[in-house]
Specification:
The chain is an alpha/beta fold. The chain contains 14 helices and ten strands. It has helices at residues 25-35, 93-97, 102-108, 124-129, 145-151, 176-190, 192-202, 229-236, 245-251, 256-267, 271-289, 294-300, 306-317, 321-328; strands at residues 13-18, 47-52, 58-61, 67-70, 82-85, 116-120, 137-138, 156-157, 163-165, 169-172. Strands 2-1-5-6-10-9 form a six-stranded mixed sheet. Strands 3-4 form a two-stranded antiparallel ribbon. The longest helix has 19 residues, at 271-289. The radius of gyration is 21 Å and the shape is globular.
Amino acid sequence: MGMNAPDTPPRRHRVVVLALDGLLPFELGIPQRIFGRAKDTLGRKLYEVVTCSVRPPGPVETDADFSVLVENGPEALATADTVVVPASYELGPVHDGGVLTDELAAALALIRPGTRLVSICTGGYVLAAAGLLDGRPATTHWASAEHFQRLFPKVRVDADVLFIDDGDVLTSAGVAAGIDLCIHIVRRDHGTAVANEVARRTVVPPHRDGGQAQYIQRPVPKPQLATTIAARAWALSRLHEPIQLRDMAAQEVMSVRTFTRRFREEAGISPGQWLTQQRVERARHLLESTDLSMDQVAADSGFGTAQSMRQHLQSALGVTPTSYRRTFR
């Protein structure tokens, strides 16, 4: 008694996207593109994505030469499980003085306590002006970070990361980082397999760690310079083996020093951090998709021992391997 029938569709998590005047159309579309494609093993959608305005239904201006017709008013915010605030170039007093307009304050007041809050790029200004980021770590586009910190001194701003997951409040840097954050949320909610399928259909990388640098001085090496792509492919094919930095450097016929510098320039993180990320992802996949023992998963993902794997997953995900498998298996 009390259990749903096997064919009863699960309740879909409701994501409400707040469209503000001056919005960036690309970023407005990210939540629908990512959450709208997340499905369970029976092909049923896991999220319902709704867009709303702070005003009654009608047109909302964009930063492009067109407006968008938004069919929901602010009352939709009261129905949200997650609220997403994309970037806008016309935040007015929110951007200039760190204060909400009456219209925006009234809309945000409709959000139920416990609702997950997400911002993309300068959408973080809205959350900060509402006092929702006080005392919390947060990020925004690197070009706005200094101004953001001056305007909101109570926020612990980190301008060097793609996104920050602070539990019920998540913030991201600009544009592509919003995609990374939404895929991260899908992974957090439903596991690696679902998130990877969304990423595959969207043709984006399935995982870029939030701590990765958002601004790299030379993201693409000059054509005449060697890259570290071959070394990464070599390492991915043997994650289950011990991998030394000198072995990766040897694949590119570089010194360890040159390889490490070049790797950071291309990936934004050190080779050691990258290896750990890949091993965590491998362990997550095996925990979700196989019945291998913890020792076998640890060995196949290159952690060596179950204890080592437990420490790394606890650090990266905040849960033990057993808890992770129980949640997503």
